[in-house]
Amino acid sequence: MVESIVEEIRLRKEYLSAPVSTIYFGGGTPSICSNEQFSSLINQLKNTFSLSPNIEMTLEANPDDITIAKLLHWKSVGINRLSIGVQSFREEDLQWMNRAHNSAQATSAILLAKEIGFDNISIDLIYGTPTLSDEQWQHNVQTAINLQVPHLSCYALTVEPKTALDKMIEKKKVLAPDPEKQARHFELLMQWMEDADYEHYEISNFAKLGMRSKHNSSYWHGEHYLGLGPAAHSFNGHSRQWNIANNALYIKNIATGNVPFEIEELTPTQALNEYIMTSLRTSEGLSFENIQRIWGEEKEKEIRKDSNKYIIQENAFINENHLQLTNKGKLVADGIAADLFSCD
C-alpha cells in the first residue's frame, strides 16, 4: 500500500500548481506505519512538490501507537502537528466504542508528545454516547483543558449502517444514541469552550488563539487540494475526483501507471451549494459579497431573502455583510444550509 501511494505521488505531480502549504496524513491510521515506510512517503512528497517553508504537516495517531521512538522520528521528518484520536478519557466510553487504547494511554500520549516537543496538538472527543452523562462529558472536556491541549475536534456519535455498532443496537445489546442528549452536550460544550478561551471557529472545532487547523480550514474556504490513496478525494476548483475505495484494485491499477478515480465536474449551482454548506460551518460565515461576485446579484438577493427567517428565529445574524450562525443555529446548521441551497 505504501509503495502504491508513493507511486501515486509521482503520477499526480501536475495536479497542484501552487506551493503546498499543508499536508495531512489521515483518513486511516498512518501511525501504524513503520519509520521506514513513513520516511518514504515524506521523501517522495518533498521530491515531487514545492513545499512551503512554513508548512503545516499533521499526522493522525492513535494513543496506543504513540511511543517515544515514533514521536522522535515523526518530528525528524517534518511532522509538526499531531491529531490524536483520544475519543474519551473514560474507560467505560472507550470500551463501549471498542477502542484499542485505555484512558491512561490517552493521557500518556498527550503528555509524551508535549515532552518530545509537539506543541501543536489536536485531540478528538466524542459526545452523546449512552455511557456519557452531562457530568462525565464535562470531565472529558475539562481534562483536555487541564492538559492544555490547544485544539479540540468534538463530534456527536453517529451510527453508520451495517457497522458492528449498528447491528448491536438493532439486536438491543446496546442503547442507541439520544439526539436530545447530543444536542445538550453540544450546547454545554460551546459554553465550556468559550469560558476556557477557545475559539469556536468551525462547527466541530475549537482552538486557542493562533492554533486553528490550517489544513481543515482550507477545505472550508474552498482551496484546492490533492488526495492520495484509496478513497481519497481531490478538488481543483471546477471538479472533484475520488480514488477507488477497494485496496486491492487501487494497488493493481497503480502498478500499471494508472490512477483509478471517478470525476465530477461541478455546475455553478453545485459550487454555490458547496460554498453555502462549508461557509456556514465557519465562524466567518457566508459572505454575501462573495456570492454576488461569483454567482451574481440575483443569487445574492435570493439567499439574503431566504435567510431572513433564520435571523428572526435568532438562528443567524448578519455581521459585516456575512451571514453567521448563532449557537442556537449551530445545532441545526445542516438544515439551514440545505434550505438555502439553490435549485437551478
SSE map:
Elements: H1 2-11, E1 20-25, H2 35-48, E2 51-61, H3 68-76, E3 81-87, H4 91-96, H5 103-116, E4 121-127, H6 134-146, E5 151-156, H7 164-170, H8 179-195, E6 199-202, E7 205-207, H9 214-220, E8 233-235, E9 239-243, H10 247-255, E10 261-265, H11 268-280, E11 286-287, H12 288-295, H13 297-312, E12 316-319, E13 322-325, H14 327-330, H15 333-340
Parallel strand pairs: 1-2, 2-3, 3-4, 4-5
Antiparallel strand pairs: 5-7, 6-7, 8-9, 9-10, 11-13, 12-13
Helix pairs in contact: 1-2, 1-10, 6-8, 11-15, 12-13
Mean pLDDT, as a whole number? Answer: 93
Contiguous runs where pLDDT drops below 50 for at least 5 residues: none
Structural class comes to alpha/beta
The helicity comes to 40-55%
Structural domains: how many: 2
CATH top level of the largest domain?
Answer: Alpha Beta
User: Oligomeric form of this entry?
Assistant: single chain
Give the overall form.
globular
Name the helix and strand elements from N-terminus to C-terminus, one letter apiece: HEHEHEHHEHEHHEEHEEHEHEHHEEHH
The CATH architecture category of the largest domain equals 2-Layer Sandwich
Give the biggest beta sheet.
7 strands, mixed
What is the count of β-strands? Answer: 13
Number of helices: 15
Rg result: 21 Å
Distance between the termini: 42 Å
CATH topology of the largest domain: Transcription Regulator spoIIAA
Largest sheet, spatial ordering of strands? 1-2-3-4-5-7-6
**Beta fraction of the residues?**
15-25%
